[in-house]
Amino acid sequence: MMAISLIAQNFVRENRWPILILSVWIVFTTVVTAGFGRERVAPDDVIFFVQQQAVYICAFSAFLAANAIHNERKSRRILLVLSKAVSRSEYLLAVLIGTLTMTAVYAVLFAACCTWLAHRAALPTGGVWFVAVLVIAGSAIAAAVGLFFSTFLNPYLAIALTVTMFAAPGLAHPEHRPWFRLIPGLPVLLDVLHFRFRAGWTMDWGAVVIAVLEAALFWGLAVVVFAYRDIAVPVE
Question: Domain containing 99: what range?
């Protein structure tokens, strides 16, 4: 467990600039949405901000996870890590944990900014932190799917397939079909998009549980595929 923790910490440290950039982006767009504090915020602008930033955070998590293996192979650092009695499953788990650690930081900052905007728009803030939980769950499945595809594809193709897997089923409007809840990440995404700061809105805990279980499933699939990959081959 110590090895997983150290690898995850190193992954976070190596991505400190992307963390800073996204954090600055969230704060900047918050200030812009608030009209730089000079006027009352329109409720529709706050709702759009919540949905936009939630999707950005999930997409960014998939991007980080999908690029992890490629970057480590390119620098040859992965050979050093796996030569120190660290299994490939532990390595992939560390990448996933590192990504979710960054996601948690984003989610807390996101929820704090949403709460401030909601106060300025005179909207109830009770559901904001539940949306942050949805963001973390959505990021977990997005990162796991991106990590899985990256074990056998170029990271850009992995990201493209991850986005397609999440977005394409939604075009068919499958909400009222029995298999809807089994589509990776889609129930969580739609729960976020249905958030309107209304008193009757409740978070779909079932969607969160399913997203976490599916993230574990895709991590397991990534382990199976990665076990047969030749990581000694240099990549460009």
Answer: 2-226
